[in-house]
Amino acid sequence: MTSTLPSRRRFLALSGLAALSVSMTAACGSGGGPAADGRTTLEWWNIATTEPGKSLFPQISSAFTAAHPDITIRTTSLENEAFKSKLTATTASGRLPDVFQTWGGGVLQQQVEAGLVEDLTDALDWASDLTPVSLQAYQSGGRTYGVPYDIGMVGFWYNKKLFAKAGIASPPATWAELLEDVRKLKAAGVTPIALAGKEKWPGHYYWAYLAMRVAGLPALQQADTTKDFTGAGFVQAGAHLKELVDLQPFQEGFLGAGYATPGGQAATMGNGKAAMELMGQWGPSVQKDAGADLGADLGFFPFPTVDGGVGQVTEVFGGGGGFALRKGAPKEALDFLKFFVLENESKLLASNGYLPVVKGAESQLTDANKKVVADSLAKATGFQLFLDQAYPPAVGQEVNDSVADLIAGKKTPEQVTASITEAAKGA
Asked: Please, what is the end-to-end C-alpha distance for the chain in angstroms?
């Protein structure tokens, strides 16, 4: 969201980062630090522009500075895409804030390789308090470079009342059943799916999940290594997505729609104007913030299996939100992260915008849909980070762009895989 969007979304290619030295980072760093009077100022960049983070994050920050009066936190909160653009620009100049939002994966890896991010491994003596799956995206080569505050998965949020109107008794378990349910919803005068076509990242969820279901997780991992996405399973994933697109399931004007913007995907879903959206664990809170609260009418089901595919329904796709520190950030920055995550886990969970990263905290969940997602994660037999975060930035951006072109009717399934392969070989 995550604005709490995790997201999952892309930075532009961070060209030339590897040439930046740690000394340049120290000289050009935009972060704060100790002043002559002994006070410390921390620069904190996050994406909490929608509820619950919009209210909760400042509360946590104020509580920390109240307990540490010699520390000042200067906060910058930006919408997801604006944040990524701003951080990309500062990163390319070798300047990072002390504490900044990250989704891990390929983007964080590039920043690590450029010597711009603090290695937290030895200082993170409370890592054992966190669930291994939540830490996974922020680790590389046995080292840890970020701290999670949220973890979850993407699945279909659906409107039970609209499903009933279309005569659909239970959520689809297979892709063929999903397509049939789309037809039933259209026949009942219901818009089947809300999609933020303008922002592109929500669309890549479909192709990524279909690739997982058809080709399997090992194929995605192998393609990342071989830099070849032209295999039959990836082409078939695009062909299945085209089957959906050909049914014209999305709301009118979806190609120009944003996600959390007025009239966008979340509002369309929250206002009961569409029956489904494929979105992460943050979906309900953004629906409520941008539209209305569907309450008991809202349900969740995992992405269906595909007949003939090797992927299982227990293999999940998703990620969460976390924070990393710039190289050389004041030690107080890590103190703030420990306070944010460990001492405020109950507040994060009570807000219904986040899922547990602290071991045993799942027992605190009260929202039925959050429990369903947490249970699905607990039973997961495989996990894939958002492709536009897992892969190097240029590759992730091409996934988003090419899938968006397929959805818009501008590329074939074969052209999508060829474009992603070209980007991978050139990254």
From this structure: 27
